[in-house]
Structure of Large ribosomal subunit protein uL24:
Amino acid sequence: MRIKKGDRVKVITGAYKGTIGEVTSVYPKEDKVIVEGVNMVKKHQKPTQANPDGGIIEKEAKIHVSNVMLWDEKSKKASRIKMEVKEDGTKVRVYKTSGKEVKVK
């Protein structure tokens, strides 16, 4: 999977289409990610010692990685990426739209 935690992505399909957010969690075995502010669901929570009131909380749910694309700040577009090998032998991710290296926060 070419998307990592901390990447800025744009949702390209579904109810949240067009939303840009940061990846907070990555699940490579499931090919899913959690994006900040996307795919919000309501979860009913029983009272616990930590949360004695319980209640309904709203949180982000997983979204399939095929429904997001990396956001290129330079060209202001969603972009595919390619892998390149530097002179020192390290692999880097590069945006196809601008040719710039993907920086991880």
User: Anything to note?
Assistant: The domain at 8-47+57-95 is CATH 2.30.30.30 (SH3 type barrels.). Strands lie at 8-11, 20-27, 32-35, 40-45, 55-60, 63-64, 68-72, 77-79, 81-85, 91-95.
